[in-house]
Each structure stands twice: as structure tokens, then as C-alpha cells.
């Protein structure tokens, strides 16, 4: 039997929405790469995290089809769940902190997987987009209020693994923040919220609300 927690990361102000995340706190229960990939595929979350050392924050991240050196919403959610000041990922150390209702991570934009950042003229255009055919990973965005840094976005992984649209994606928000060079307040998907801010040292803060949805056994 394998126990795992189900989180929602980057919830909206009302505590709803957010992207679901599976976290296997006892990663030793699923020790091999092939076994972890198979479990991530079976669970079907956009990402599943295996915790290899809860005290040091050592984690291993998988989508249903591949292993990732870093990903935004898995790091935000797992840091909140473990209550640690740092996560250790294959990409590098990820600082973490809790401020009020928001959990924050510090990461480098070059750690994020490649994404096509596609700008539209209005939030209404982004809202009306159909899910594209499998192919490139597209982050569609538009200004809602440019002076205030408010953005409307949707994310289409294009992987063909049954996940047509990601509800909230920290890595894409990281890349967009690096491109625009300013703090952002992003409304993504059906009602998720992501906050970001660039730092002088090249790191970018990414923050959001996290909720524990359930603890399951497989």
C-alpha cells in the first residue's frame, strides 16, 4: 500500500480551484524511477512528488510521462506540506517560506522547462481559446490591468497524456516574470491565483495558497 496526499496549489482568494498535486511522503515505498513513473501515470495528476528526505526537503518530481528536475506548483505545495525552509531538487536548492496565507518559493527561471509564452490582446481572447492539438507547451496570456501587473492566463501542456489544460503552473509564471521583469498577479484557469516577483540576485519569488484536499491510499 502507498499513501499519498492530494493538495491544491495556487488556490484562488475563496480557497477554491488551484492545481491538484500528489505527494508521496514516504518516497522509499516507491524506490525506482520506473516504478515512480508508473505510479505518476496511474494517479494522473499533472505532477506527482516523491519525498526522499522529509527533513532536508529532498524531492523527486514526475508528470504522467516524464521526470522533471524542477516544477513550480509541486515545489510550492510540497514545501508547504513538509514545512521546510528549503527543498532539494535535481535543478538546485529551492528556498521556501510562509507569509500569511501564501507559501513562497525562490527559483531560477532557467530551471523551468521550455514553454511557448503566447501573448493575446485581451483576457477575453484567452478565455475563448480552445484546447489545441497535442504539440508544443503553450502558456497563453494577456494583460488584465498592465499598470497593476494583473494578468489572465491559461496553460496547455500539449503532451497528449490526458491533461489538456493545467489549472495553475508556477514554472510558466516564472518564465513570464523573467521575460517581463516585474511582479505579477496572475489569474489562471478557472480561478487560480499565482503571485510572482523578481529579485536582484536573479531568483524569482513564486507564491500561492495551498490546501490539503485528502490523504489517500493506493
Automatic annotation (TrEMBL):
Record GO terms (molecular function): catalytic activity
One family name in Pfam for this protein: PhzC-PhzF
Source superkingdom: Bacteria
Protein name: Phenazine biosynthesis PhzC/PhzF protein
Amino acid at each position: 500500500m502507498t499513501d499519498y496526499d492530494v493538495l491544491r496549489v495556487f488556490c484562488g482568494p475563496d480557497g477554491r480551484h488551484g492545481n491538484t498535486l500528489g505527494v508521496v511522503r514516504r518516497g522509499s515505498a516507491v524506490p525506482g524511477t520506473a516504478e515512480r513513473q508508473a505510479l505518476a501515470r496511474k494517479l494522473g495528476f499533472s505532477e506527482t512528488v516523491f519525498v526522499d528526505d522529509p527533513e532536508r526537503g529532498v524531492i523527486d518530481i514526475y508528470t504522467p510521462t516524464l521526470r522533471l528536475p524542477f516544477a513550480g506548483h509541486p515545489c510550492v505545495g510540497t514545501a508547504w506540506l513538509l514545512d521546510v525552509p528549503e527543498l532539494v531538487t535535481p535543478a538546485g536548492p529551492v528556498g521556501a517560506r510562509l507569509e500569511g496565507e501564501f507559501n513562497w518559493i525562490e527559483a531560477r527561471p532557467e530551471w523551468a522547462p521550455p514553454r511557448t509564452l503566447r501573448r493575446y490582446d485581451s483576457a477575453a481572447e484567452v478565455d475563448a481559446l480552445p484546447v489545441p492539438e497535442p504539440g508544443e507547451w503553450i502558456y497563453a496570456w494577456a494583460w488584465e490591468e498592465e499598470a497593476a501587473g494583473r494578468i489572465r492566463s491559461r496553460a496547455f501542456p500539449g503532451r497528449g497524456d490526458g491533461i489538456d489544460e493545467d489549472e495553475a503552473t508556477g514554472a510558466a509564471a516564472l518564465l513570464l516574470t523573467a521575460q517581463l521583469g516585474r511582479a505579477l498577479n496572475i489569474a489562471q484557469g478557472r480561478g487560480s491565483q499565482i503571485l510572482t516577483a523578481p529579485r536582484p540576485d536573479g531568483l524569482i519569488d513564486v507564491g500561492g495558497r495551498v490546501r490539503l484536499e485528502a490523504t489517500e491510499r493506493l
